[in-house]
Amino acid sequence: MNWGSAGEFFAMGGYGLYVWGSFGVTAAALLIEVVLVRQRFSAVRRSLRRELAADRDTQD
Amino acid sequence: MKPRQKRLAIIVGGLATLGIAATLILNAFQSNLVFFFTPTQVANGEAPKERAFRIGGLVKEGSLQRSDIVARFIVTDTAKEIPVSYQGILPDLFSEGKGVVAQGVLSADGKFTATEVLAKHDENYMPPEAQAAVNKAHEATRTLKQ
Amino acid sequence: MSQRLVNWFKFASPASFYPLAGKMWPWFAAIGTVLAAAGLWISFFVAPTDFQQGEGYRIIFIHVPASWMSMFIYCVMAFWAAIGITFNTRLSGMMSSALAPTGALFAFLSLWTGALWGKPMWGAWWVWDARLTSELILFFLYIGYIALTAAIDDPRRADKAGAIISLVGVVNVPIIYFSVKWWNTLHQGASVSLTKAPSMAATMLWGMLIMALAFWMYSIAIALYRVRAIILERERHTTWVAELPEMQR
């Protein structure tokens, strides 16, 4: 184990800003990408469902 | 303009823009592809004379002097040496015996005045104990050779 | 032989690839999550402090994997571009456009983490050396691909234009990789390569490789998820989409 305390862990030997800036932005970016892709998928599925339902209604 | 022509125009325009951008970048890049010159290259007159350029090499052991805010050190590639003076904050990894790249101008008397100093580190990553062992091994081979 | 060939072309049709991608992505996502957890554990709790960069070197655990992925994804896009041009398959263009945003993201992360690493160690956020500049060009190539394909309404034409960018731009990938050998650069040489033993302590190396695998699995999962959305967008007027179970009420 490299760290004596949580404080030491977050300080990263004085490089905290740079290390956490890298890991934090990476985690945030990947998370945002997942959210955006899910939104894109459910948006097209929703509009398709609506279209198909409208088609069925006119046929009935 | 018909949609077909419009699409074609967009594609041609897009590719042309990309091509021009790439040409410009590579052209600007060509003169700077060599990021720094070694002291030997400078001694051979390969470095630009009129404008600022970068020199790179190792900080000579025992050459670093700090007076007030000015740091003086010698950049060497083990064949040739250039004395450098720099006023400013040195990067964390700057130390004697390590790689350095300095940007600035060379005066007629062969002294280099730097406006920016960057540390160049190598691709070795290891814990301090391992590094100590490596140093010890180097020391041992050196004493054996003597 | 011919049997196998037929099977491959079967999956090249969007209608059969859509459900396959839906079955596959959760597996890649799960493996990626487990690997990321293991990789992060090694990065922070197992890998020792570096002899010259202290704790600051830990940025390597995402910087190098992100850079690898940015180059690798571009090569995969070029592969799909070549397939698309040769066999005229619809799916290849969809795969390319599903990969591009993720590739662009990794190129951005490579530049971002590189800046945060360069500032404390070299003393500069950015320098115009060959390695950094060629990686920036890769980022622009991704942006160019996305912008160009978005500007063309007809997806088939967009795919063709995108394929040209992918195939032309792929020459930049070896330039990035060998830049540190061909020219004097501030960026250090490769720590890991096929031609020599890695110049890293074993636990550091393992952390980096596991993080790279995690990013790889993530990229596959997210690209499969995105390609499903793209397939639905492009095939919305076909009967097979209308007959999908998730489209029924």
Short note summarizing the structure:
The complex is a heterotrimer of chains A (60), B (146) and C (249). Chain A is an all-alpha fold.
- In whole angstroms, the N-to-C terminal distance of chain B is 84 Å
Given helix and strand content, the structural type of chain B is alpha+beta
N-to-C series of helices and strands of chain A: HH
The first-level CATH class name of the largest domain in chain B: Mainly Beta
Strand content of chain B: 25-35%
The CATH superfamily of the largest domain in chain B appears as Nucleic acid-binding proteins
Main beta sheet strand tally, sense and closure of chain B: 5 strands, mixed, barrel
Sheet with most strands of chain A? none
Helix amount of chain A: over 70%
| Tally of separate domains of chain A | 1
| Count of DSSP-assigned helices of chain B | 3
| Level-2 CATH architecture of the largest domain in chain B | Beta Barrel
Low-confidence stretches of chain A: none
Structural class of chain A: mainly alpha
CATH topology of the largest domain in chain B: OB fold (Dihydrolipoamide Acetyltransferase, E2P)
Task: Give an account of the 3D structure.
- The complex is a heterotrimer of chains A (60), B (146) and C (249).
- Chain A has two helices and no strands.
- Chain A is mainly alpha-helical and 60 residues long.
- Chain A has one domain (17-59).
- The radius of gyration of chain A is 23 Å and the shape is rod-shaped.
- In chain B, strands 1-3-4-6-5 form a five-stranded mixed barrel.
- Chain B folds into two domains: 1-33; 39-120, Beta Barrel (OB fold (Dihydrolipoamide Acetyltransferase, E2P)), CATH 2.40.50.140.
- Chain B is an alpha+beta fold and 146 residues long.
- With 249 residues, chain C is mostly helical.
- Chain C has one domain.
- In chain C, helix 5 (130-151) packs antiparallel against helix 6 (155-169) and helix 5 packs antiparallel against helix 7.
- Chains in contact: A-C, B-C.
- Chain B binds chain C through residues 3, 7, 10-11, 14-15, 18, 21-22, 25, 29, 32-38, 56, 89-94, 98, 101, 116-128, 130-131, and chain C through 48-53, 56-57, 60, 120-124, 127-130, 133, 137, 140, 144, 147-148, 151-154, 157, 161, 164-165, 183-186, 188-191, 199-201, 204.
